[in-house]
Amino acid sequence: MNVFNTLRNIVENRASLILIGAMILVLPLLMTSSFQMRLAIVVWVYAMAVIGLNLLMGFAGQVSLGHAGFFGIGAYSVALGPSQLGLSPALSLPAGVAFCGILALVLGRPILRLKGHYLAVATLGLGMLVFMVLSNEVELTGGPDGMQVPRMAILGWKVKGTDTWYWITGIALIIGVWLALNLINSPTGLALRAIRDSEVAASVLGVDIAKYKVIVFSISACFASAAGGLLALYNGHVTPGLSDFLISVQMVTMVVLGGMGSIAGSLVGAALIIILPQFLTSLHEYEHAFLGLIMILTMIFMRSGIVPSIGNAIKRGRHDSNS
Amino acid sequence: MPLSEFLQFLISGLTVGFIYGAVALGFTVIYNASHVVNFAQGEFVMLGGMFTVFGISLGLPYLAAAILAIALTALIGVALYEFAIRPARGAPVFALIIITIGASILIRGLAQVGFGTSFFSLPSLAGDTPIKIGGAVAQPQSFVVVIGTLVMVGLLALLMRRTMIGKALIAASTDLIAARLVGINVRMIVALSFAISAVLAAVAGILITPISLVSYDIGVLLALKAFAAVMLGGIGKPAGALIGGILVGVGEAMTAGYLSSDYKDAAAFVIILVVLFFFPSGLLGSEHHERV
After folding, report:
1. Hey, of A128, A134, A205, A284, which one would you mutate to test binding to chain B, going by the most B CBs within 10 A of its CB?
2. pTM (2 decimals)?
3. Which terminus of chain B has fewer CB atoms gathered within 10 Å of its CB, N or C?
4. What are the pLDDT digits (tens) for B128-147?
């Protein structure tokens, strides 16, 4: 990746903030049913978690097969905060995010020393452990049946209704995109890209590899946890299924399908994986088989991701017309 | 009494540990030939058990059903390589991981539709009279599992050391390009490695079904635990895979016996996290030096 590519990325990513914002604004005018609205909410929430994971995968070059663990912790924090600590749901969300961020800082140091398959199995184990704790601590979490999440109230105003949640999650996504873009364009972002391209070269240049990996791991955990918390508040209940291994794998697929290192791609990837199965409701029993098939086909034919592929095609077209 | 209790846990741990070891060995065979970690390995175990159950229900004798099940599973293993892995040659590690996870979800999804969601069993090969060992009780099938796995490992070792095919497999895992240069059909060899590991897993599935039953979704945890076992031993080491599998199985049984049966499944992941903390390349893994 050279300087021009980096500059192009920055321009593209600025444009993606405006584009995503405009889309969130315009979409309600086009949607005809509250079902579509609800689907959009789920897409915004997942997109947020996927952006976080993309920071880790696309910018720092590290894989996590356990991100649903943080998603689940975020979700359970808005359920447990009110019932165990007496926190309001609105406060439990940031509390859960902070908890995940710190947890990731602590665990990240030993885990991110690992590489390749070892990193994959360690993150996977982490996610599995979260899932098992959520499933087994029945007295605290309600076990496999999950538990209710109290309705969020801000200054006495009860937050409810699909429309309201559309805007809350939409705005949260925009904030997430903005934060991610700022991170990418900061010195930290440059250090992360240096690590992705070559850890040795980066360390020779004086980048503290361990420190930056842990920082981005923690940030991406915060994104996942915030997304999980929002989803739980919107749904009104949580189950251990939110931290299932399958969700972790889905998130990784969303990152790659949309495009590693592309923030807009994270949204595209999340949208496709969530919306595509909706067209197959008649083949409901084949839903899982279909997801598996999408994952295989994505990795074979769409490995460089939809958004970067389209970007390259446009660039090539421009180049052809110039010559 | 405590000793017989311990012995009891040890027996059940060893039984399941040998199964994990067989699955982990399958991981290793594929990894060595192609540097792919095959997460669908657990599904092969399920298919081995399932196909046998359904073969018998169609009126086939036990042995015929088992052989047919092993052959079908091997075929699916080769298909996995030809249609999902080979087209993605040269892809980065995470992409191959996702492909095999996708394949496992695909196989599981189809199995759910084809076989339903109930549990099935097979008759024990050694009868049902429990065997008493020093105050503990072992199911005869446990011995079948241990002996069966050891026979498979022995056969695999013979295949690797004594036949041209085995030598070609070792050559391909040492250096793909050099193997190709000396005229080895690498594509066939890698496909063969998928078949071998599918056979290992299918046999393991048939052996364990009388003890732990089979349903469409047993593969997920099996594959993840065997993956942990592989990492525990150090990736690419056949002996490490077997030892890792046994350690995970025994650790799991001890956790269930002495700590909490709810967290039985967590044992493998706690063990792997602790081990990786001290040995980032597994117990038997050699330190990897990267050339810059």
Report:
1. A128
2. 0.87
3. N
4. 788 888 778 888 888 899 99
